């Protein structure tokens, strides 16, 4: 690989799969998965399925992630799940700041930083999702948007905390649209982002996994993952089909 960074192929099931379908999908992923020194495999499932899927993943190398959680340890937060509750289910990763949460559920930079910080405190690796809208891209402010999303978290936890975290760059215009950023477009952003992070801390920037997300699928994964600064994928739609998801993993490993 050359970069020294292990790849991460992460599925984000979003709000999909009822119980039986979730178990079937997770079982297929386990069945088709093969250990690799080059790439980790992760599924981020709806919280209601965590207990079932935790059992299903036991004795496999597939890692378990959650899609969201509240930062408070406990309290009067009707409907919420705390990060510390996730720990009981051996959740290893937490998505924070996904654009769907930022846009539809009021996840401000401050809330995202709260969640990121709470994940780290509970020994869970946060995956900080960042991305620009089509309008922002057309205005030429992509990097400014991404920097400010990351800086809000750096201001809270410090750059060193990114040693135990990952970033997922997901251009909003490419999510669920079938329009993928070209490998060159994605690489350009990843490279610029890593370069900017290096101005904070070179070693952290060199070691940080920066994933690409946005209509990654079995057909385009190879060219995206061939880019030197793309260290994996955060995959929505294609992670709901075990065969497609595992094709992406096989490219990465
Ligand atoms: O978290 C995953 C991303 O939102 C990408 O979703 P997608 O692969 O369905 O475009």
From TrEMBL:
GO terms for molecular function: triose-phosphate isomerase activity. Pathway: Carbohydrate metabolism; erythritol degradation; Carbohydrate degradation; glycolysis; D-glyceraldehyde 3-phosphate from glycerone phosphate: step 1/1; Carbohydrate biosynthesis; gluconeogenesis. The keyword Acyltransferase does not apply. InterPro entries: Aldolase_TIM, TIM_sf, TrioseP_Isoase_bac/euk, Triosephosphate_isomerase, Triosephosphate_isomerase_AS. The active site is at 98 (electrophile), 170 (proton acceptor). One of its GO terms (biological process) is gluconeogenesis. Keywords: Cytoplasm, Gluconeogenesis, Glycolysis, Isomerase. The keyword Cytoplasm applies. It catalyses: D-glyceraldehyde 3-phosphate = dihydroxyacetone phosphate. It comes from the Bacteria. Pfam families: TIM. One of its GO terms (cellular component) is cytosol. It is an enzyme of class 5 (isomerase). It is found in: Cytoplasm. Its main location: cytoplasm. Its EC number is 5.3.1.1. Substrate binds at residues 12-14, 176, 215, 236-237. Belongs to the triosephosphate isomerase family. Homodimer. Involved in the gluconeogenesis. Catalyzes stereospecifically the conversion of dihydroxyacetone phosphate (DHAP) to D-glyceraldehyde-3-phosphate (G3P). PANTHER family: TRIOSEPHOSPHATE ISOMERASE. This is Triosephosphate isomerase. The gene is tpiA.
